[in-house]
Amino acid sequence: EDKSFIVKPDSEGDKWELDWPVILISAECAIAYGTWYSEKTNQVWKLPTPLQWEKSARGVDGRSLPWGNHFEPTWAAVRGHTDSRALPAEIGTHKMDCSVYGVYGLAGNSSDMCIDPLNPDNMVTKGGAWSYHASFVQLANQRSFPLDARLETAGFRLVRQL
After folding, report:
1. Which of 28, 93, 124, 160 has the most CB atoms less than 10 A away?
2. What percentage of the chain reaches a pLDDT higher than 90?
3. What's the CA gap between 50 and 58, in Å, rounded?
4. Which pTM does this prediction carry?
5. Please, what is the Cα angle at 149 between 158 and 120, to 5 degrees?
């Protein structure tokens, strides 16, 4: 009635928090957002390539996780990071989930959509997500999906050339 929005719990009783990552959108929508944001800022913003994403996550030493090679579930928003039911976390909650370049949330919370220039008709997801078990949280892993797929474990971040 007062023209405001209220986030209500979903059918399972979970309240989707406003500071969770944006998920359940397609790569097509993320690309459209990048186009809109590019026009707004007069700079070219786009989804990263898998190689760009992996460099930002693994650094030059090829580590398997942003913090090194040892997996610790409490350091990222993944299955087992809390005793309660697996759900996304507030962005920035897990300070250890940070690459040598200062990029947060690469091992958990939501995997990121990437576009491979050699196969632009599909999106690739990189990184861990809130519902992933430890065996799925390796930064070199990638999964391929159609551009119109909407995943509860995948979000996006934009990159631009300096």
Report:
1. 124
2. 69
3. 12
4. 0.89
5. 60
pLDDT tens per residue, range 108-146: 999 999 999 999 999 999 999 999 887 778 898 999 999
Output the six-digit token pair for 97: 């989930």
Contact 135, 21 (CB under 8 A): no
Q: What integer best gives the mean pLDDT of the chain?
A: 92
Half-sphere exposure of 8 (CA within 13 A, CB side): 3
Per the CB < 8 A criterion, the answer to whether 146 and 133 are in contact is no
3-class SS letters over the chain: CCCCCCCCCCCCCCCCCCCCCCCCCCHHHHHHHHHHHHHHHCCCCECCCHHHHHHHHHCCCCCCECCECCCCHHHCCCCCCCCCCCCCCCCCCCCCCECCCCCECCCCCCEEEEECCCCCCEEEEECCCCCCCHHHCCCCCEEEEECCCCCCCEECCCECCC
Task: Give the phi and the psi of residue 154 in degrees, each rounded to 5.
Answer: -120, 135
Rounded to the nearest 5°, which phi and psi values hold at 144?
Answer: -110, 140
